[in-house]
Amino acid sequence: MHIVTVEGVPYDWLNQLQEIHAHVFDGANLLLEKLESKEGLICLLAVEKEDIIGFKLGFRHPDGVFYSWLGGVHEKKRGQEIASQLMRKQHEHLQTLGFKKVRTYGRNERKAMLITNLKHGFDIVSTFVDTKDRHKIVFEKLLD
């Protein structure tokens, strides 16, 4: 497995990215227009034998903090530290770009991701209820 980092929309990988997104997020579509609208989009793709088995997407938030937006690993590849590898690689890349802080949101239903965030040095800084009436946990981490 290796990790491919793409700044901007990963057009060469788009179909596979949309397929794994649908797999991870219960059939939800990842629209090209949505990707193209994210300023400073950075995509990390865990690739095995030319197939995406995991991904991590994020972009520059208007307040200058990097927002780690979406990510996941194919269910057959979970438990192999792929999400952790993607997160470490993302944070290393963000540091080279001069980011000082990364933020992400979590939901109580996705406990594995909450635990991964805590293991990697994120702090819980607040909570809120989104427009779909879901409780969200806000995590932030200072990049060293």
UniProtKB/TrEMBL annotation:
Organism domain of life:
Bacteria
Question: What PROSITE patterns does the annotation carry?
Answer: GNAT
Database matches in InterPro entries: Acyl_CoA_acyltransferase, GNAT_dom
Q: Which residues form the N-acetyltransferase domain?
A: 4-144
Q: Which residues form a coiled coil?
A: none
**What is the protein's name according to its record?**
GNAT family N-acetyltransferase
